[in-house]
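W.,

You were right to be curious about this one. When I first looked at the sequence I had no strong expectations either way, so I just let the prediction run and decided to look at it fresh. Below is the sequence, 303 residues in total, followed by the output.
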Amino acid sequence: MGGNVGAERVISLFFMTPMPTPTPPPPPPTPSSASATEAVPSEPVSTPAPAPTVKEVAAERFVLASPDGAFIAGPNSRWEEIKTLWHIMMDFVRGLRTFHFVGPCVTVFGSARLGEGHPWYEKTREVAGEIARLGFTVLTGGGPGIMEAANRGAKEAGGRSVGINIILPHEQAVNRWVDASVDMRYFFTRKTLMIKYSYAFVVMPGGLGTMDELFEALTLIQTKKLHNFPVILIGIDYWTPMMSAIRRMKEEGLISPVDLELLTLTDSVPDAMEVLKEKAIKQFNLRKIAIPEAQPLLGERKL
């Protein structure tokens, strides 16, 4: 027993004692003149990486200097954090002053990559025109693609059309179909304002940005942070795979069965308008009233 204890102590002391520094091996002998002429195998030469393009460099510089990127990259100096808070506040101030008189809105989400002539672009024009005829202001992200189509459809129908643009390195300029717009430095301030003024959300086919906007609205409604505003998905064929995933969530007990009722999936523009009438206009007792006078001293202006 004592021998075992001693062995344990020896082993413990062995690992606690610093290992001696090994003596470096002697350098190899200098080759003689006879062997100096022998061929020495050369090391493989590595191919240098291709230089980044001007576009790649510009994009990287923008990411490093962009408001969103700088804000979420980690802690900054106290002064930088104070400046960030100021810019966030000014995003909201510009938005609140610009859209104070827009009236009840319906926000249309969708891809920025679908141009005029695409079936979803033309469908969006039709949907937005009908939304405007109901008396709603059509609100979008203010950019190209589906956003442009929605603003255009509202204007062509004689309605009000506004946009909240995001400053990006490659996209996007405000489309020409808006009555009023504001540029946002931050994605989260933009999404907050797009939700703030809306009594319904119409979601056309789109990519990751559209999914982000859709699920943020759904989460706010599900958690009762937002009223039970209707969320209408236009495009049965496009949205069916996503709806299958959401039904799987219900089957696994990850969401409540009533959460499925938050979404309306349709291809029919008249059906979508009936949902707006019942779940937005009627539910919230919306009616046409005189718009208050704008106060120019407060930075306000009518559309």
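Here's what jumped out at me. Residues 1-20, 33-37 have pLDDT under 50 and may be disordered. And, maybe more interesting for your project: The longest strand covers residues 161-166.

Coffee later to discuss?

I.
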